[in-house]
Amino acid sequence: xxxxDAPSSEHVKPREVPYCGFCSLPPEYCEFGPTLxxxxxxxxxxxxxxxxxxxxxxxxxxxxxxxxxxxxxDKKKAKEAAKIEKQMQxxxxxxxxxxxxxxxxxxxxxxxxxxxxxxxDLKKAAKLFANKFACGSSVTKNNQGNDEIxxxxxxxxxIFDLILEHWxxxxxxxxxxxxxKKKGK
Amino acid sequence: MESDWTxxxxxxxxxxxxxxxxxxxxxxxxTGHTQVKSSVQRAIRAKILEQYKEGIxxxxxxxxxxxxxxxxxxxxxxxxxxxxxxxxxxxxxxDGPYFPTLKLLHKYPNMLPRLQVDRGAIKFVMxxxxxxxxxxxxxxxxxxxxxxxxxxxxxxxxxxNEILAVGTTKMSTDDIxxxxxxxxVETAHYLNDYLWKTVVDI
Lengths: 185, 202
Ligand SMILES: [Zn+2]
Prior knowledge:
The complex is a heterodimer of chains A (185) and B (202).
Chain A: H1 36-46, H2 48-66, H3 71-93, E1 96-102, E2 108-113, H4 122-133, E3 137-141, E4 147-152, H5 156-166, E5 175-180
Parallel strand pairs in A: 1-5
Antiparallel strand pairs in A: 1-2, 2-4, 3-4
Chain B: H1 2-6, H2 26-29, E1 30-35, H3 38-52, H4 54-57, H5 60-63, E2 71-75, E3 79-84, E4 87-93, E5 99-100, H6 102-107, E6 114-117, H7 119-125, E7 131-132, H8 134-137, E8 152-157, E9 165-169, H9 173-179, E10 183-190, H10 194-197
Parallel strand pairs in B: 6-8
Antiparallel strand pairs in B: 1-2, 2-3, 3-4, 4-5, 7-10, 8-9, 9-10
Residues 20, 22-23, 25, 30, 33, 39 of chain A line the site of zinc ion.
């Protein structure tokens, strides 16, 4: 009765399934999503082994399968792909600024700007920062009328790490750390 | 109200039971979330244990740590999401059976019995279609387990390692083979639906 993968009383470790960094599917399913080209680009950069496994053999099958697809399917796919790509491009160009602003010689605040470009709920982010650093944190409008999060204290590096950990969609390269020192210190 | 989303669904989609994941939007469709009392948490845990028995006994403490707070998110169409550590673990409809999410199933694929559809069915399933019997009995399909009707099953696919969807059998696997027409498995949650894309951040 016992099959080899029958659940046993032994501790079962969770499997770690890698997901596509572009479309979020398990990479083997990217071929059924609308952004295959971009997914392939991502995988070829990030997991060469899996890329070789998935696409060296798969290309022939795809060529055969696409013969069965109607031009309408293709058009719809292309349109959807273009839309998603446009959104992604916008996202990938958006910057998150973490700014250390000196208020007095010893006191400073940290402002975080641009998280909303990555669909982060700013109020929740502010709450998270407040909890993590046990300090005041709030969403305020800046001079340009855009929302930013202001955290009491110098926590730039911690926020940098926290953003990477908590919102992996934000690329590390898009986060800029800047210091705004008082003039004539 | 209803015609709004039925219009958008592919013709093959007939599952209204679990609501329109196709248009589900965490920002608009979640009507509220609460951290449940520990007695409620115990009851939910007991129900999930009761439902999946051997499939989950060994892992329940990892999946739902006793000390972690359990968040119940209520959505439109009477769908409830069970959330822990910002991860949706299970969902159900009214007080119906709990379905594990695909992200949880990818971690613990042995939780549910698995049926395999042929490659041709993948794109329909990923468009929200229910699974017709022939998709489970053709050459590329596999049904190595025997499952009664109304069971929660995981759907894998020909040539793929990862689980593609989760749903409920509309007839037993024996009947799927014997009758070989109509809906075999009603799809509740599939790769790339809105639940899949949902990121919870409380
Ligand atoms: Zn992809």
